[in-house]
Structures are given as structure tokens and as C-alpha cells.
Write a structure and sequence with these properties.
The model has no long low-confidence stretch (mean pLDDT 80). Strands 1-2 form a two-stranded antiparallel sheet. Helices cover 0% and strands 16% of the residues. The chain contains no helices and two strands. By secondary structure, it is mostly beta strands.
Length: 58
Amino acid sequence: MDGVSDCVCSGQLSLDFKVLIKPDEQVAYWSMYSVPEDVDAITLEIPGFEPIENIPIS
């Protein structure tokens, strides 16, 4: 959330949100998070998919 409690991400409130993604279509979504300074990699978990481990962050 930003300073006025609006989501700092893409998603259902985004004008770019798609309910259906067609074959061969690509859509980029993003989210912003605060992480401790000593964290240099994360694991991304999306329901229905295998976790993506050790994603480097900076």
C-alpha cells in the first residue's frame, strides 16, 4: 500500500487486469514488497503452480 492505502501492485484493481488469458497471450503482473536488508533471494508461491525458489532480489 502507498501512503493513502492504495495497492502498489497490478491485480484485480488494476486497469490491466485480465479475467481470461488466451493461448499464446502474455500478461505481466507485479507487486512491490519491503524486505529486510539482509535478504538477497526469495521464493515465489502462486496458487496452482510449483514454487519458484531462490529468486535474486536487490
